[in-house]
Specification:
The structure holds 2 protein chains of 2 kinds.
Chain A: H1 7-40, E1 44-53, E2 59-65, E3 68-70, E4 76-77, E5 86-88, E6 92-94, E7 97-105, E8 111-117, E9 120-128, E10 138-139, E11 143-146, E12 153-158, H2 162-176, E13 179-184, H3 187-197, E14 205-208, H4 211-219, H5 228-231, E15 246-257, E16 281-283, H6 288-315, E17 319-320, H7 325-333, E18 338-342, E19 356-358, E20 369-376, H8 383-394, H9 396-405, E21 409-410, H10 440-450
Helix pairs in contact in A: 3-4, 6-10
Chain B: H1 12-15, H2 19-44, H3 48-54, H4 57-90, H5 96-102, H6 111-122, H7 127-132, H8 146-171, H9 174-182, H10 187-198, H11 200-216, H12 219-223, H13 229-239, H14 243-267, H15 293-324, H16 333-363, H17 367-375, H18 378-381, H19 384-398, H20 406-429, H21 434-442, H22 447-458, H23 460-476, H24 479-484, H25 492-501, H26 505-528
The chains are: A alpha+beta, B mainly alpha.
Chain lengths: 454, 535
């Protein structure tokens, strides 16, 4: 017999296999059970009115739905309202139900509140006494509201990360009751995956980091045309010519600089080839935003000038980085003085990180504004929900999210600018349609030719 | 080496008596070739301009870079793995059973995390420089480029070789070494003249695993800014979206892989490694290291320290920075459960698919068996994202109902990591005397019964090694998981990637540490137990 092979081993292997199979079955079972449990969860929620008296005699009101405070934009009862007249708030959405607060001033000075859900009154006769303490929120009793039977599904392929846009998508799901599923991944890989899937793609919406991937889907006729009302929300420069994709937020190319070591930063990327900056500059030639910037430079200044600039940069010992964040890191670490990046990478670091954005004021490619954007897929079986999502991204709420959470530029609704940024209209970007940035092959060839990219 | 005698070959038509095993083996190998079929279909759409566009002056340099890195990493990995395997298996190294688990843990660290950690620790103005600055060291050698890529890949892939060599060592008949010793050889000389030659198959299969991993790796080379072929493929994916030119580029990579596989093919001579006589039924005697005991301990600690402590320290640093910055510790237990679940399924499925292939390769040697063996490497040598594209293409055409389910995902893992399971198995299988199986058959047991009652228990260490390899590699797999997993099926690796991409350090670090923990547990169970699975 061969064998130093022990009895213990003979017994243990089948046991291990059995244990493994049991574990797998248990896991699969628990997953299935979880799935069933969530499916049976009836979509209802509890809602109540909340109101407070202000010092000027006005009454502010809002809603609280399952513990979440909803604030309508029109939410004040004037100090001296007409007796008996019905005042209605603007709509707020929860799980696909459109909620409004109704308020009526009664002759005795008290106020009666109620709730309308999808136009039907679901709560009435909630009395807010005439004499109450000022600035104290009072709450009404509860109404239980059922959301529409099935708001449907939406499948999003997102090239933008979950920690960036997950919160916004959750918000949309919460408001509409639509069952949203997101596949997060790499912008380019997801676009190619959609083209491999073709008409069988499970995706309804593609949400990409850059105009190039979106233009690819448009060119392949995988993206559907968006309706005029959506197209009218965004500047023509920030959407496809045929309306097959539309921008949702913008980002500016900037120089990330060390304020200590670069007290007088150059005002144009073309100045970076100056011997003054030799060995102090960095770029990320494999990064999509960088390549879009080089493409813009070719469009505006021509291939010859672009090639000369690229060669000048290389002759100036430009350091190569794999992507943008490491450049911001390197500037803070003292490894680098100037990097070519997008404006928002800095805000991912601590406030006291020793690096600063410098917006070049040249009107040339170095000040390019690129976008993240969204497309509805031609094969989508949930078009209504897809369009609803796109409208949501472009709404004041969606745009404020990009301004506050991702530190990007809003592109649609009129909202206040991000205090950390120079406002979009004070920037001096080149006048260039983003769809003209699709000639990436030419850019790659040029980058290879000069040796910036292998 | 008189025990290595040429095997007697049986006429090929006789070997085809049992077609069942061939059907299974051929099916497994064909699955691994799905990406190749996809690439040929897509490359056929390319016009001459695409070919000339792809095949430019840079191509030769890329191939040279890739080949150089592959050779360097494989050689260094062998130089690390062979002594470590011997020290932990055959000597009285202190805490040997713990080292057995710890030394394979670097496999659980995704190469992009490892590379990032090395840049922070060893890069310009990194921690090492800070440490050395008071000693008057002004600057340390540049980590970016070839050196960094080589260092990272060596430290995070040498355990592939280690696991396979170790399985080979365990199956080795101690009698051979003892004979050598009784004939007057020192332990050192017996090791070089008897043990190492006996380990030729594990060394070759393990080296192939390392070499092809290096060829397909993207994480380390992109962080270390070293241009290899796979990096060029990713760059093209990120910029041109043109599937046919991507396929052309991948086919050139396949050609490079074919060369590696052919070199390996020509290296393997027919030889018999199993015992002819009855042998000695006992554990090998441990070699006493005597005064080398503590230097050996120091050496192994240094290797594991660099490969494990540096990344773990960086992860803990991120965690503390993130938590101080106001992030909360994330709830990632469902990600951990998903990772373990998918990796365990992948390990079991891949081992199951690989058993017929390993049997065919070892028991029915011949041209067809070699083709089956080589074909099984195709998926492994390609970048994961390309394999994912191929499986999207394939699944939606053949079995659309399982698209983006756990079945497709596990299948993708099997296509990607089949050679790892085969390598684990075959080193065990070559030690099993065919006579035992034949005896069982002559006692009227069916091939299936024979397999279950005779072969499987004897190759248990190989099964476990194969399972462990696939499990660990699946835990950190990223590109195919992102595209093929059921929607919203987050794993620790995808979650780590997402948060690192968006610079949420605490969340990324928590994912990384839990990934390491989840990988460590099964390894301690499988390899930490001294008696359990050793033969």
């Amino acid at each position: 017999m061969p064998t130093s092979y022990s009895r213990a081993a003979r017994l243990q292997l089948p046991r291990l296999l059995v244990a493994l199979i049991t574990l797998t079955a248990l896991l699969a079972g628990s997953f299935a059970a979880l799935g069933l449990a969530s499916a049976q969860n009836a979509p209802t929620f509890d809602v109540r009115v909340r109101a407070q008296l202000h010092e000027d005699g006005r009454i502010e009101f809002g809603l609280r739905a399952d513990g979440e405070v909803l604030t309508p934009s029109r939410r004040f009862l004037p100090a001296e309202p007409r007796i008996g007249r019905v005042y209605v708030s603007t709509v707020v959405e929860k799980l696909g139900v459109q909620l409004q607060v109704i308020a009526i001033r009664r002759a005795d000075g008290s106020t009666e509140f109620g709730i309308r859900a999808d136009g039907e009154t679901v709560l009435r006769g909630q009395i807010f006494p005439a004499a109450t303490r000022e600035l104290l929120w009072l709450q009404s009793s509860v109404a239980t509201v059922a959301s529409p039977e099935d708001a449907g599904d939406l499948v999003i392929y997102s090239g933008r990360g979950e920690s960036l846009v997950g919160g916004l998508i959750d918000r949309f799901e919460e408001q509409t009751g639509i069952d949203v599923k997101v596949r997060y991944g790499n912008t380019a890989a997801l676009a190619i995956a959609i083209s491999e899937e073709g008409s069988r793609s499970p995706a309804d919406v593609y949400y990409g980091q850059d105009a190039g991937a979106l233009s690819f889907l448009a060119e392949e006729a995988l993206a559907a045309q968006l309706p005029p009302d959506i197209r009218a929300m965004v500047d023509r420069n920030f959407q496809d010519d045929d309306g097959r994709w539309i921008a949702t937020s913008g980002r500016a190319r900037v120089l990330i600089i060390s304020p200590d070591r670069v007290p007088n930063p150059p005002d144009s990327v073309f100045d970076l080839v100056d011997p003054e900056w030799k060995g102090r500059i960095g770029w990320a030639p494999t990064n999509g935003s960088f390549q879009a910037f080089v493409t813009a430079m070719r469009q505006i200044h021509g291939d010859a000038a672009t090639e000369e600039w690229l060669r000048g940069m290389i002759a100036n010992d430009v350091k190569v980085f794999p992507k943008n964040t490491p450049q911001v890191q390197a500037v803070g670490d003292g490894e680098l003085d100037i990097g070519l990046v997008n404006h928002y990478y800095l805000f991912r670091f601590d406030d006291d990180w020793p690096a600063a954005n410098h917006f070049t004021d040249s009107g040339n490619a170095g000040a390019l504004i690129n976008v993240a954007g969204v497309a509805m897929l031609e094969g989508s079986s949930n078009r209504a929900n897809a369009l609803r999502f796109i409208r949501f991204l472009l709404s004041a709420e969606g745009q404020a999210y990009f301004r506050d959470q991702t530190n990007e530029y809003p592109v649609a609704s009129e909202i206040d600018a991000n205090p950390r940024l120079i406002p979009l209209d004070e920037l001096n970007p080149p006048s260039l349609a983003l769809t003209s940035l699709s000639d990436l092959d030419g850019t790659l060839e040029l980058l290879r030719k000069v040796g910036a990219l292998e | 080496m008189s025990l290595l005698s040429e095997s007697v070959s049986v006429p090929s038509w006789l070997r085809l008596r049992i077609p069942g095993i061939w059907i299974l083996a051929l099916a497994g190998a064909s699955a691994a070739c799905i990406p190749l079929i996809y690439l040929i279909v897509r490359a056929a759409e390319a016009d001459a301009e695409t070919w000339s566009n792809v095949l430019n002056d840079g191509t030769a340099r890329l191939l040279l870079n890739t080949a150089g890195l592959t050779v360097a990493v494989t050689a260094a990995s062998a130089a690390l793995a062979l002594p470590i395997a011997y020290l932990t298996e055959r000597t009285d190294l202190p805490f040997a059973r713990w080292w057995r688990s710890i030394t394979i843990m670097p496999l659980a660290i995704p190469s992009y995390v490892g590379a990032f950690a090395f840049i922070i620790a060893l890069g310009p103005n990194g921690s090492l420089q800070d440490l050395l600055a008071p000693l008057g060291v002004e600057s340390i050698p540049e980590i970016y480029g070839f050196f960094g890529a080589w260092l990272t890949l060596t430290l995070f892939t040498f355990p592939y070789l280690l696991i396979v060599i170790r399985a080979g060592l365990r199956d080795l008949d101690p009698g051979i070494e003892e004979t050598a010793r009784s004939l007057g050889h020192s332990a050192w000389s017996a090791f070089w003249r008897v043990t190492v030659p006996q380990l030729r198959i594990p060394m070759a299969t393990g080296s192939l695993l390392v070499a092809l991993y290096v060829i397909a790796d993207f994480g380390a080379v992109s962080m270390m800014r070293f241009d290899t072929f796979t990096r060029a493929i990713y760059v093209r994916i990120g910029t041109s979206f043109d599937r046919s030119s991507i396929a052309v580029l991948c086919l050139i990579l396949v050609a490079l892989v074919a060369v590696v596989l052919l070199v390996d093919w020509s290296q393997r001579r027919k030889a018999r490694y199993h015992r002819l006589g009855s042998g000695a039924a006992r554990m090998p005697r441990l070699v006493s290291l005597r005064r080398y005991r503590w230097p050996a301990l120091l050496a192994i600690s240094v290797v594991c320290g660099i490969a494990l402590l540096v990344p773990v320290a960086v992860l803990f640093h991120w965690l503390s920075v993130g938590l101080q910055g106001g992030e909360t510790f994330p709830d990632i237990w469902s990600e951990a459960l998903n990772s373990v679940y998918a990796s365990a399924l992948a390990g079991a499925a891949t081992v199951a698919i690989s058993i017929p292939i390993a049997i065919v390769v070892v028991r029915r040697p011949g041209f067809l068996a070699r083709v089956v063996d080589r074909a099984s490497y195709v998926g492994y040598a390609l970048p994961g994202v390309v394999v994912a594209f191929a499986l999207i293409f394939f699944t939606l055409r053949v079995t659309p109902s399982i698209y983006q389910t756990i079945i497709t995902l596990v299948f993708a893992y099997a296509v990607l990591f089949l050679p790892q399971a085969i390598s684990g198995l075959r080193t065990s299988l070559v030690r099993v005397q065919p006579g035992l199986e034949e005896a069982s058959r002559s006692l009227n047991r069916s091939p299936w019964q024979t397999f279950c009652s005779v072969t499987l228990p004897l190759i248990a260490p190989g099964v476990m090694a194969g399972f462990a390899l696939v499990f660990l590699t699946t835990m950190k797999e990223l590109p195919a998981t992102l595209l093929l997993a059921p929607i919203e099926f987050d794993t620790l690796a995808t979650s780590l990637w997402g948060h690192q991409e968006d610079v949420f350090f605490a969340r990324a670090a928590a994912n990384g540490l839990l990934l390491l923990g989840c990988a460590a547990l099964p390894m301690i169970i499988l390899f930490g137990n001294d008696r359990g699975l050793r033969t």
